Amino acid sequence: MTAPLEARELSLIREGNTVLDGVSFTVAAGEIFALLGGNGAGKSSTLLTFLGFLEPSGGQVLVNGISVDSDITTVRDAIAYLPEATSLYGHLNAYENLDYFLDLAGKSAGRVAIDAALDRVALPQEARTRRLQSYSKGMRQKTAIALALLRETPILLLDEPTSGLDPVAIDEFHDLVKALAEGGQTVLMVTHDVYGACQVADRVGLLRHGKLVGSFAAENGKRIDTETVHAAFAERETA
Amino acid sequence: MIRSITREARFLARDRGALFWLALAFLLSIVAVSFGIAEVREQRETIATLIEEDAADRANALAGHEDWGSAAYYAFHLTYAPPSQFAFAALGQRDSKSWKHRVRMLALEGQINEADTRNADFGLVGRFDFAFLAASVAPLLLILLLYDLRASERMMRRHDLLVATAGSKGSLWLPRALVRVAALALLLLLPLWLGAFVEGAGFGMTLQASAIVIGSLLIWWLIIELVGRIDASPSVLLTSLVGVWLALAIVIPAISKASIEAANPVPDGGEILLLQRETVNDAWDLPKVATMEPFVERHPEYGDHAEIGEMGFEWKWYYAFQQAGDQAAEPLVQQYRAARLQRDQDAALASLLSPPSLVERSFERLADTDTLSMIAYEDSVRAYHGELRAFYYPLMFPEEPFDRELLEALPAYSPKR
Fold it and tell me: Which region among A54-63, A105-114, A192-201 has the lowest average model confidence (pLDDT)?
């Protein structure tokens, strides 16, 4: 069966620096795969190659078996992307932002569906008609997550999705991601949050200086052991 | 595509910054069209008043005289170039060249080149008409609307989300820019269309003017797109685009003008006036035969009537030396006319390097306010003056008895000759 996401010997060199060096992994349907790494490890670059924003220097990235460089429109149609520090339009309210971005994706949703998505991300009702420039970072992130929900894409790419969220919001977000994966969505998230990655992911990959240097999987219905991953992460970061 | 355009139109409707520039464009267009209409109406009123007074003045002048020479001397004749129905959009050369004269049977070239005093304020900044708005101001407004479409999204870290959501760049940036260009074009053109309707300008002409405006905006859109591909901050892009605008709208036209003027020296109207007046004034002190000989060379049909006594005053001699003044100025007049035409041709070529100049020239051509139109008007005055001479000379030189009734057949000037 074709994996929704696959990196094959992915390499990326930018301005003479090796950003990714022979990275290979697959993410199965309904799986949550977290790429862990420190600053400059190549996490966000990996996501951007799946979106076609960065062209690999070597290897291949495939989305649903389609090479990203062969049909970028189809590839992007299959992906909902949540960038780090999401900045939706500040002069629009939540409804207007979602309407706009959904239309941009070639989709439409009625007010009921949008409210349902905003309920799922727990954005307060009273905030929904306010302009986003008055939102906290967490509220903006929730609105962006609602967009990802409404797009109903089979794949979610999340770049440091819990950065800036309060602990309660982080837990809610993890629950939401797990629910989406249980519904069949494939999730690739990149983060430097060891605890969060272990809480939510089915598998965690350790990325260091552009190389995938370790992998941990949840087994027997248990979450990945945070201590083990943390130790490996710390060891490799200081190595 | 229609869906994308509708989406971006709704988005634009909520973008206060863009709405401000669009509202300003609409306001400036209304102002430019209103100024233009007010100006051409004032010119038409002036002409109507002059036409009304012209006949009465001439009748008055002719009533008190009993010989052809006096009648011709004291009667003024109005000539004028009425503004076209599209002149409200491009006043062009009507600001700097005379479009009305009151000519007499005297030497003509001095009368043509004795221009009205220009308004120094307008001489400095030019008149704010629609052509100026479309040629020079609209590109700046377009720059302000488009310069940071991508760059501002990059700065706000929204670019990747937008493009990833849209699927392809084309389905986002093209409709977003297209909506802005179309909105600007529409808001600029609406007052023009209304003005054209009020002024009775033809549909074809209005269509051509609209095509010029849209074509100019498309050229500037292309320029903004090319500069926008530089991976730079919005402020750097804005500075670069304003630099391009300065080069195309100010620097290139200024350099072209200076080069063309240096390459095609033109005697000014004052030189023609001076030469013609000196010739006329000198004639008073010359033997009369020195005036009559060149006159007969030009008009051999009056050879039998060209003998003038050296003593005393005769109208025949007076008008002959008036004509001698024109004849003396002829080479200078031809040089002036040819050089102006050459400058105009060179300016047409140079305008290919400057979209604003090209737009202004195209508007002036449409509105009949360009150099060619003003030269055509001057030629029509010469032709009319020739008709006056052709009327009076056969009466004056053979010394036909004065007959007031014959004055009914005095040629009348009509524009568009």
Answer: A192-201
Same domain for A93 and A23, yes or no, is no
User: Smallest Cβ distance to B7: which of A91, A103, A147?
Assistant: A103
Residues of chain B contacting A106 with CB distance shorter than 8 Å: 3, 167
Of B244, B191, B243, the residue nearest B213 (C-alpha): B191
| Average pLDDT of the segment spanning B116-121 | 53
**Signed CA dihedral, A15, B152, A161, A148: sign only:** negative
Nearest CA in chain B to A148: B165
Which chain B residue has its CA at the smallest distance from A44's CA? B160
What's the pLDDT tens digit per position in B292-341? Answer: 787 788 888 877 776 777 667 778 888 888 888 888 888 888 888 888 89
Say which of B11, B15, B161 has its CB closest to residue A81. Answer: B161
**Is residue A113 pLDDT above 60, yes or no?**
yes
Q: Which of B253, B139, B208, B137 is nearest to B367 (CA)?
A: B208
- Calpha distance A66→A155 (Å, rounded): 13
Which residue among A152, A187, A203 closes a domain?
A152
Q: Are residues A225 and A202 in the same domain?
A: yes
Q: CB contact, 8 Å: B10 with chain A?
A: yes
ipTM: 0.85
Label residue A237 by pLDDT band (50, 70, 90): low
Domain final position from A152, A177, A205: A152
Whether residue A16 lies within 8 A of chain B, CB to CB, comes out as no
Considering the domain architecture, whether residues A11 and A107 belong to the same structural domain is answered as no
The answer on A165 and A146 residing in a single domain is: no
The nearest CA of chain B is from the CA of A79 a distance in Å of 8
- Interface touch B167/A81, C-beta < 8 Å: no
Q: What are phi and psi of B135, to 5 degrees?
A: -80, -45
Q: Strand pairing partners for A58?
A: A11
A73 inside 8 A of chain B by CB: yes
- pTM for the complete prediction? 0.84
